[in-house]
Each structure stands twice: as C-alpha cells, then as structure tokens.
Write a structure and sequence with these properties.
256 residues; alpha/beta; Cobalt-precorrin-4 Transmethylase, domain 1; Methyltransferase, Cobalt-precorrin-4 Transmethylase, Domain 2; 2 domains; five-stranded parallel beta sheet; five-stranded mixed beta sheet; 20% strand; globular; binds S-adenosyl-L-homocysteine
C-alpha cells in the first residue's frame, strides 16, 4: 500500500497527466483539497470511492485516514491542486508517512502559473529581457523570509508569478511599480482553465482597479514583467543566421 500525491492540475480535467487521470479514475480512497481542486477533477473518481475533503481537516485527522487505508492495504490518492511541490504542504504529510512506515510517491501536475501563461498566450521568458521566472507569494499568515520580500525579487527584473496574493494586488502593484515602472505589463488570471476563468490584462498602474472591477479576490495568478509584452526582440532560435546542434544556419550552408 502507498500514498500517491497527485497533481490535479489547474482545474480543467483535460490538463491532468495521463497517469493522474488513470490513478484517479481507479482510486478507492482519495483525500482532495476541496478549496482548490476543481469538482470536475474530483468527479473522475469512481462511484463508491471514499472521498475526503482536506479543507476542514487537521494533519492528525488525515493520519487516521492514512492508517485506515494502510490497514485495508489500499492505495490512497492525495490530490493537490496544480503541482504538489508548490505550496502543497506535502512535507509534513510525508514526514508523518515516514513515521507511520507508509511508502509514497508523487505524480507531478500542471501548475497554475503555467495554465495562466497558456490562457494569456504568453511566453514568460524573453531574450535579453527576462531569462528568469520567479514563483513567489506575498506574506500572509506565513511570513516571507526577509531576503525574499517583494522588493528583493523585484530588483532582479525577472518575470514574477505570484501565488496566493491577489487580495493584495493594490499594494503589490504599488511596490513593484518602483522597480518595474508603472507601464510594466501585468496580468491577473482567475481560475485559469476553469469554465469561469477571467483574464485581466493591463499595467502596474491600472491592474488593481481592473481586478477590483472584475471582483477577483482569490484563486488567481498575478504575472508581472516586461516579457508579457509582444513587442520585444525576438528569439534567435528560429533566425536563419542562427545555427545550433539540430540545424545549420543559412550562412553556414552558404559556406559549405
Ligand atoms: N500547487 C498549486 C498552488 C497552490 S497555492 C499550483 O501548482 O498551482 C494556491 C494558489 O495557486 C492560489 O491562491 C492561486 O494563486 C493559485 N492557483 C491555483 N489554481 C489556480 C488557477 N486555476 N488559476 C489561477 N491561479 C490558481
């Protein structure tokens, strides 16, 4: 018997991995994060499967379900939104499983920052402009380590993807404007890939007002950075004079 931490992806069941889909549609016991995992994904569990919403549960309560599954020798699916390795709080569950002598594995999922980029039809990197993507959040009940406060991240001028922070979009945009400029492209994606997805696009100067108008208060990704602009130097990768391991440039061909 083992516990399988499964990435549920951002919401749309089409974005599950083949493995996640298979495990879910065959599962007998599943604990899912009801506050975030979409009902359309949970619905893939077969009729009669034992489903538990972790939203109202403590770790101790979860451990009781782990040990029941252990007693019955049935694999347990632990469903986490997006990819389990990002703000998934899987570490403490794994520590408990180690103590209980229960084996576990992880199935990765499409993270919400990726789904948000896809919905925006954007590339998060741009040659000479942004070669780094930062996944972060603002402090809530979980304080930020000092060197990872927004101002330090902003100094890098990377593309910023902020989780768990849309309720603070006003102060986030104000602070970032000091580093990225008021005219920096900014987007907020509410429930990327869900049927009620909302895309809000603007600049650091106007994004907060637009987000308020759209009445977005949670489950949204904030993406900030010049890479979001379409009007940038293009990648050399497909340029005719750029050769790489798989393709000779036109100028090289001329030489041969
Ligand atoms: N492990 C998840 C993140 C969990 S933290 C992942 O990889 O995506 C929860 C935060 O993720 C939310 O506050 C929101 O910022 C973001 N999020 C989760 N699902 C989302 C979605 N479908 N669209 C936009 N943001 C989402």
């Amino acid at each position: 018997m083992k516990v399988i931490f499964v990435g549920a992806g951002p919401g749309n069941p089409d974005l599950l991995t083949v493995k996640a889909h298979r495990l879910l549609s065959q599962c007998q016991i599943c604990i899912y994060a009801g506050s975030l995992v979409s009902p359309a994904v949970v619905a893939l569990a077969p009729e009669g499967a034992e489903l538990h919403d972790s939203a109202g549960m403590t770790l101790d309560e979860m451990k009781i379900i782990f040990s029941r599954a252990q007693g019955k020798d049935i694999d347990l699916i632990r469903l986490h939104t997006g990819d389990p390795s990002i703000y998934g709080a899987i570490r403490e569950q794994m520590n408990s499983l180690d103590k209980m002598g229960i084996d576990y594995e992880v199935v990765p999922g499409v993270s919400s920052f990726q789904a948000a980029a896809a919905s925006l039809k954007t590339e998060l990197t741009a040659p000479e402009i942004a070669q780094t993507i930062i996944l972060s959040r603002t402090s809530g009940r979980t304080p930020m380590p000092e060197m990872q406060e927004l101002e330090h991240l902003a100094r890098t001028q990377s593309t910023l993807c902020l989780f768990l922070s849309v309720h603070k979009i006003g102060s986030v945009a104000d602070e970032l404007a000091g580093y990225y400029g008021h005219d920096c492209p900014t987007a907020v994606v509410f429930r990327a890939s869900w049927p009620d997805e909302k895309l809000v696009q603007g600049f650091l100067s106007d994004i907060a007002a637009k987000v308020e108008k759209a009445q977005i208060k949670k489950t949204a990704m904030i993406i900030v950075g010049p890479a979001l602009s379409r009007d940038l130097p293009v990648s050399k990768l497909y340029h005719r004079n750029f050769s790489h391991g798989y393709r000779q440039s036109d100028s090289q061909k001329d030489e041969t």
